[in-house]
Design brief:
The structure is a homodimer of 120-residue chains. The first copy, chain A, has 120 residues and is an alpha+beta fold. Chain A has five helices and five strands, in the order E-E-H-H-E-H-H-E-E-H. In chain A, a hairpin with a 2-residue loop joins strand 4 and strand 5 (98-103). In chain A, helix 2 packs across helix 4 (74-86). The structure holds a DNA duplex (30 and 30 nucleotides).
DNA sequence: TATCTATATTGATGTCTATCTATAAGTTTG
DNA sequence: CAAACTTATAGATAGACATCAATATAGATA
């Protein structure tokens, strides 16, 4: 995309680079906020593991399935689920007493697409 | 991977689900910590945009290229770069007065691979 | 109706984070 | 060597976050 940076020849052998004019904020501020919220939600070991558990559950994972795997209280797990939900990473649906959680594949695909647009 | 959850038949038409025995922590704790650190680093709008800028720079992006795009002080940008570096997302190399930043493609590929293993 | 169960909410607390100003460290130029 | 420039570090502060105990909500069961 960008070409090697131009350099200003100075006395002797030293060169001085100029600031790269080709770099642009390809991610708009509001998109950056949305994506960052999703990344932040995954940026906690327990939430990442919860998210992975839900991804295995075929849309029927409930909180009690999750709590078993962690040495944390129920309110803490509930909090982490809310963070994932608010970030749009999962959707939750009440089914009687239980709440079933499922992955939001759309946002996962968006993140993967974003990352694939980044190469050095 | 998992099959539909077994249900315990009760009186009438109601059923009661059992806890899903098939869910397992596929992400080990230490891997979860490592991945979460990377996600957390990307979990800030400015850092995500910085990361995108660096991805455009062909390994020659320096801090002054980045500061231009944000209404933040130089120490703050320096801090965000350190967070990205500590998370293994970028590598930085001193070149005279300047420090050149480049993407660590390996970890990006790892994240993409992790996400691709998650489907509902 | 009373009880049990699954989940959510509230409030408290200690820790972490983002940002700034001021300053230091190291490099290049004059 | 001194001045200018790029980046990093230290210290301070306001706000956010993770966690827990206690409690509330609401559906299911007896």
């Amino acid at each position: 995309m960008t070409s090697p940076l131009p350099r200003v020849k100075l006395e002797g052998s030293s060169t001085r680079r100029t600031c790269d004019p080709n770099l642009q904020l390809r991610i708009a501020s509001d998109a950056a906020v949305t994506f960052a919220e999703a990344f932040k939600a995954l940026g906690h070991p327990v939430r990442l593991q919860i998210f992975d558990l839900i991804s295995q559950g075929l849309g029927e994972t409930c909180s009690c399935d999750i709590e078993q795997h962690f040495d944390l209280t129920q309110p803490t797990i509930s909090h982490h689920l809310k963070v994932l939900r608010d970030a749009g990473l999962i959707a939750s649906e009440s089914r009687g007493v239980w709440v079933h959680h499922r992955l939001n594949q759309t946002i996962i695909d968006s993140i993967r697409s974003l990352l694939s647009s980044m190469h050095p």
